[in-house]
Amino acid sequence: MAYIVLQITWKASPAIQEYGAGFLTGRTWDPNTSEFGILPEIWGTLYSSLLALFIGSFFGIAVAVFLSEGYLGNFVFNVLKLFGLQFHKFWGKLPSWSESTLKNLVELLAAIPSVVYGLWGIFVVMPLLREPCNWLHENMGWFPIFGTRYQGPGMLTASFVLAIMILPTISAISRDALVAVPPKLREASYGLGATRWETILSVVLPTASGGIFGGIVLAFGRALGETMALAMLVGNMNTIEISIFSPANTLAALLANNFSEAGSDEMKVGVLMYAGVVLMAITLVVNIFGALILQRATAGLKGMR
Amino acid sequence: MASPGKDPLQASEIDLRQLERSLRKPRTMLSMFLSLVTTVLTFAALVPLFSVVFMLFYRGASKIKLSNFYELPPTAFEDGGGFGNALVGTLIMVAIAALISVPFGIMASIFLAELGSESKTASVVRFCAKVLSGFPSILAGVFAYGAVVLVTGGFSAYAGGVALSILMLPVVMLTAEEAIRMVPSRMKEASIGMGATQTQTMWYVTLPTALPGIITGVMLAVARAAGETAPLLFTALFSNYWSMSTWSPTSLELNEPTASMAVLIYNFSSSFVDNQREMAWSASLVLVLVVLVTNLIGKSLSSSGPKR
């Protein structure tokens, strides 16, 4: 790993010397005039990841709670009751394989290659989002988030697909954290007369919060570095817009689109390597932070048992 | 239901039914509402998975033909064609990556689980592996570009393999470590008690017992590497031809740009030609099936492994 960091930084060194910190704040990317700046890309990377994180963690934590609180049994029980099949409450408890099947189904989302998600995003998500987004723009265009017309490839499409891609990470790690909460705490809360969700909100989630937060941070790291879906969906425009419908660009997509054309031009390669260094610095910090939080969270729970 | 006269609840001094929570209290209703929301969100999260799989079969399966597997990719004004060279290219590069990462990964996992399991080095290595497993795949490509493409002077299957091996390494390492740790210590003690050396114990007892778990790690890593696109874009590039030389079809040209399924999908996804877009869907279907099957085999192997 140290070698990777060294290698990339070494290859980037000519560009770092040439452009310095101005590289980080410049807004134009023009190979013809050798003017390079990656502020739009940094902005796009962070913005799309945060947006994806917002959608993804919402769903991810819901999945984790669903899987760890034995809701599946309840759900099947109630569905059967709807159809007039009344079983003894005992049958509301399903064998453990059914829950692990659902968990594996969610994790299969992570196994699908990101390029396939990109393809799916182009042909399924984009047409699907067009109508509601245009409606939002026409009726709520004064709100800066909906400020531009929906153009297809753009921030929202990309973040939407990105959210699906990071959902398994969040739900798997959060589920582990929730399952690790000692049953005694739950029982004590129920014993005091709390409802199920009062227990979840005021006892279970705070206890597992360290693990959940670690999972979200790791998912953030993954979203930052995700390339293909973004390269295909984000629109590749060097603009800084607050609107979620406008096209943008990310660091990873920039690398993916420009690297094969850089050829043997040392400065072009160096510039791209510099962008790689920036991306690496961001993701490494986020990942190390997330791994550290997870380590501390699991250590803390072990002491409580 | 028991008849009211024999109801044990009425016989007792306190009416136990008073302790049941009224369904009309706001807090109960809030709880039920949140439960409903959770259920809906969970099933909504599964919709994309089914949507992706459905679309793959819907748009990919009908166009898939046997000839797809041995023909070259079509140019813009050509009908038919296939992704034969991309399939072969993916297999070659994953094989190169596995050849690099599997020995290193297993050796590292032996070190982590057995030799220096408590040492400072091991915990640093383990932490690095965890961070590396969340490493953006495109940076592996950037690294391979710098380390292989610039050095050898051209895009090649080797460079693609090196990039993929970086992504495979932490998966192999962490899963294999887990598997080796699961080997019961009594088995090792018995082996040492019989007079075997530590190396012999390793070779004849620990590794064979941990084999299913190790293979799981390799399979998961292969599944991950087969679907990766970003690092291949500028290490292996793409090629419209077989990665074999025309003069001797048996020899592989690993020093040339090599096609891969994932890059083919990427290139064809934004094509303006219907035929190429159809090809992208068919190729996606094949790729997803390969990745999912590898994944499932890997996961089922790990559950059949030894229990402590």
Total number of beta strands of chain A: 2
Total number of beta strands of chain B = 0
What is the string of helix and strand elements of chain A?
A: HHEEHHHHHHHHHH
Low-confidence stretches of chain B: 245-249
Major β-sheet of chain B, in short?
A: none
Strand content of chain A: under 5%
How large, in whole angstroms, is the Cα Rg of chain A?
23 Å
- H/I helix tally of chain A: 12
Show the largest interface: A-B, 73 and 67 residues
Report on this structure:
The complex is a heterodimer of chains A (305) and B (308). Chain A has 305 residues and is mostly helical. In chain A, 75% of the residues lie in helices and 1% in strands. Chain A contains twelve helices and two strands. In chain A, strands 1-2 form a two-stranded antiparallel ribbon. In chain A, a hairpin with a 4-residue loop joins strand 1 (29-30) and strand 2. The longest helix of chain A has 39 residues, at 266-304. The model of chain A has no long low-confidence stretch (mean pLDDT 77). With 308 residues, chain B is mainly alpha-helical. Chain B has a domain at 86-260: MetI-like fold, CATH 1.10.3720.10. Helices cover 68% and strands 0% of the residues of chain B. Chain B has eleven helices and no strands. The longest helix of chain B has 35 residues, at 26-60. The radius of gyration of chain B is 27 Å and the shape is flat. Residues 245-249 of chain B have low confidence and may be disordered. Chains A and B meet through helix 1, helix 3, helix 4, helix 5 and helix 6 of A and helix 2, helix 4, helix 5, helix 8 and helix 10 of B. Chain B: It is found in: Cell membrane. Chain B: Pfam families: BPD_transp_1. Chain B: Residues 87-298 form the ABC transmembrane type-1 domain. Chain B: Keywords: Cell membrane, Membrane, Phosphate transport, Transmembrane, Transmembrane helix, Transport. Chain B: Its main location: membrane.
